[in-house]
Write a structure and sequence with these properties.
- 2% of the residues lie in helices and 45% in strands.
- With 401 residues, it is mostly beta strands.
- The strands form 7 sheets. A 5-stranded antiparallel beta sheet has the order 1-26-25-24-23, with no helix packed on it. Strands 6, 7, 8, 9 and 10 form a 5-stranded antiparallel beta sheet that branches.
- Strand 16 (252-258) and strand 17 form a beta hairpin.
- The chain is globular.
């Protein structure tokens, strides 16, 4: 499918054309530096007519001991206090913003064969959903994302038999489907993603309710809410990107971690004419995460060089370099109001920063394994972090200076 330029003007949501290891580190000090404006990289993106349109043994442990390092005299009254530890995990490859319910009161935690809905205000398990698909056994739920108050979008894998259920047992491809919270039942139909070496990892974008993955010469798009798909051709990307994001207005594609390459640049592509505008240069190792601020005015990148870098999207200039992590930074996200940034990494720490000047505000070191993902709740009152084995929830507390 080829997109028309008229459709590009629409936002994603209006598409119509698609049928803690208990370590205690030193209190982080402010370490920011100015860097030069990025230049171009060797990647070529030629003009194309195709454009993109705008229980599970979950036991809450309320008495968990948490080590929190705070920064004095930063002028902030908000501190994050440990609330609960949950066994399980969140999505380990996409933003987990929609693991929160729309009002921010419930968190969906996943694991083998179940989705646990945890009431954040009451600090108790609200409900345990047990997704099941006909002819699929040993279902492993990889992620659960709220679409609204009544339905969640699930990505999973399991075991299946070929030859009409009579063949050998094999691993299923990635399965995607909607699940009714009220009925605890499949909503609509289940779909299996095609497998092959030409496909990159699928990434879910909660702000748009889109599942997107690279597919030889472009990107496959799936609108979860509209149950429709399409193709975004970017045929002249010379390598497959394994990390990418799309701007909130649907006009820009940022890509990195290219297959078979150790390049550390983040490539910036303007989608309306398929043109590479620039590359964000500065990382000394491969970036693993690219996140937009809610208003689209800034981008945060993070990765193997242990740094977080902030870029201004009006001219793609570098603004700040945030240092403090002592290992690979796996994920970074902006707060709903854009004033703070949270990051998590292989050093098992969760770090909160001021997005305005890059000052470190708080370091939390209670995970016993590398932190794979982090996110703020929609209302900004909760913060979550996830390793492969557990989820930690923190509550914002306002204190007097």
């Amino acid at each position: 499918m080829v997109w028309s330029k008229n459709l590009f003007k629409e936002r994603f949501s209006n598409l119509r054309a698609i049928p803690s290891s208990d370590r205690t580190g030193d209190t982080a000090s402010k370490q920011t530096e100015r860097v030069s404006r990025p230049g171009l990289s060797f990647f070529r993106v030629l003009t194309s007519l195709g454009v993109l349109v705008g229980a599970l043994a979950l036991g809450p442990h309320r008495g968990v001991s948490v080590q929190i390092e705070t920064i004095d005299d930063v002028g902030s009254r908000a501190f994050w206090v440990s609330m609960v530890r949950l066994e399980g995990h969140l999505d380990l490859g996409s933003s987990v913003q929609s693991a929160f319910s729309p009002d921010g009161s419930t968190l969906a935690v996943t694991g083998t064969g179940a989705v646990v809905l945890f009431d954040l205000k009451k600090q108790e398990i609200k409900r345990v959903l047990k997704p099941h698909i006909e002819n699929i056994t040993d279902l492993n739920v990889m992620s659960a994302n709220f679409l609204d108050d009544f339905n969640i979008f699930i990505r999973a894998r399991g075991k299946m038999r070929g030859n009409g259920g009579k063949g050998d047992v094999r691993e299923s491809p990635e399965l995607i489907f909607q699940w009714s919270i009220i009925q605890d039942a499949l909503e609509g139909s289940m779909k299996a993603l095609t497998t092959g070496r030409q496909f990159g990892p699928s990434v879910y974008f909660p702000r748009m309710s889109y599942l997107i993955r690279y597919s030889g010469g472009g990107f496959d798009l799936w609108s979860v809410k509209q149950n429709r798909g399409g193709k975004l051709p970017v045929e002249t990307l010379t390598r497959r990107p394994n990390v990418f994001t799309i701007s909130p207005d649907g006009q820009w594609l940022l890509a990195a971690r290219f297959s078979g390459s150790s390049q550390s640049d983040v490539v910036v592509i303007r989608l309306k004419d398929q043109r590479m505008i620039t590359a964000l240069k500065g990382h000394e190792a491969v970036p693993l995460c690219i996140s937009y601020s809610p208003d689209g005015s800034r981008v945060a990148t993070a990765g193997q060089d242990q740094t977080i870098r902030i870029w201004r999207t009006s001219d793609w200039s570098a603004q700040e370099v945030l240092k403090g992590h002592t290992g690979t930074v796996n994920w970074v996200e902006f707060s709903p109001d854009g004033s703070q940034i949270v990051s998590g990494g292989d050093d098992k720490s969760v770090r909160i920063w001021s997005s305005g000047g890059g000052e470190p505000l708080q370091t939390i070191s209670d995970h016993k394994a590398p932190v794979r993902t982090v996110a703020f709740s929609p209302d900004g009152n909760y913060l979550v972090s996830s390793s492969e084995r557990d989820v930690r929830v923190y509550k914002k507390v306002l204190v007097n200076r």
